Amino acid sequence: MVAVVKVGVLGAGSIGSVVAEALRDGLVPGAELGGVVDPALSPAGLPMCALPELLSVSDLVVEAAGQRALADAGPQVLSAGCDLLVVSVGALAADGLLEKLLAAGPGAVQLSTGAIGGLDLLRSAALLGRFERVVIETTKKASSLVQPWMSAEEADALREATAPVELRRGPAREITAAFPKSANVAASVALAVRDWDVVEAAVIADPAAPLTSHVITAAGPAGEYRFEIRNRPSPQTPTSSRVVPYAVLSALEALAAPRAVFR
């Protein structure tokens, strides 16, 4: 008899609540909900608890609480012997955080694919040799891209924009830090190609964008690639894509009940 994987969820927002409810309702073969930690939220019908209690009953913890929560709680999760499935991949743009997590074991670090695909092919191609060029351009609804670092005038201009505007272009680390809720994908691409320095990222605001678009182009010794992903935004959190919690559930299913799946 295969043991059931007990899954804890860190964060009960638009991502964590969907994941927790699916686990509670038995929709992930081989896995069940251990508990949910979120000091700010307490959704009805979910078993809320404190982090120490969660770690005592979980085999694996899904981080769905944001970049700061990953940096603060991630090492505790791993040192308690729980595996950690990271949703806020953009946090790993911070110098030393990935290394800190990897050293915190004995728990293992897993990364969610989140809102994009093609990462498996990029990882494979990177084994052959360094990419010559990798670019990811993200286009989102203008109003969802307002950032705390913007001046009041910049924020108002963005909310009132009537045409697409490129907000920023630069190294993946820089763009991920500037748009922490919208550019996790840039970090995912950089980690897939195993080279932060080769990845250029851009964030484009489009007031008329019905979908969130990620266009990835890459060239290297293995070939040339172009992926375009167009996701519906989350109804609750427009900075995130609706598919993200389902990417987490897909990862949990693969981890809990291995079968013939692509990795």
UniProtKB/TrEMBL annotation:
Q: In this protein, which residues make up the domain named Aspartate/homoserine dehydrogenase NAD-binding?
A: 11-104
Q: Known EC number(s)?
A: 1.4.1.21
Which UniProt keyword terms apply here?
NAD, NADP, Oxidoreductase, Pyridine nucleotide biosynthesis
Instruction: Identify the InterPro entries for this entry.
Output: Asp/hSer_DH_NAD-bd, Asp_DH, Asp_DH_prok, L-Asp_DH, NAD(P)-bd_dom_sf
Enzyme class, first EC level, given as a word: oxidoreductase
Q: Where is the active site?
A: 214
Q: Which residues bind NAD(+)?
A: 115, 184
> Which Pfam families has this protein been placed in?
Asp_DH_C, NAD_binding_3
Domain named Aspartate dehydrogenase: which ranges?
163-248
Q: Which domain of life is it from?
A: Bacteria
According to UniProt, this protein's pathway is: Cofactor biosynthesis; NAD(+) biosynthesis; iminoaspartate from L-aspartate (dehydrogenase route): step 1/1
- What is the catalytic activity of this protein? L-aspartate + NADP(+) + H2O = oxaloacetate + NH4(+) + NADPH + H(+); L-aspartate + NAD(+) + H2O = oxaloacetate + NH4(+) + NADH + H(+)
**Function comment:** Specifically catalyzes the NAD or NADP-dependent dehydrogenation of L-aspartate to iminoaspartate.
The text of the family note is: Belongs to the L-aspartate dehydrogenase family.
Q: What else is known?
A: The iminoaspartate product is unstable in aqueous solution and can decompose to oxaloacetate and ammonia.
The protein's name is: L-aspartate dehydrogenase
Q: Gene behind this chain? A: nadX
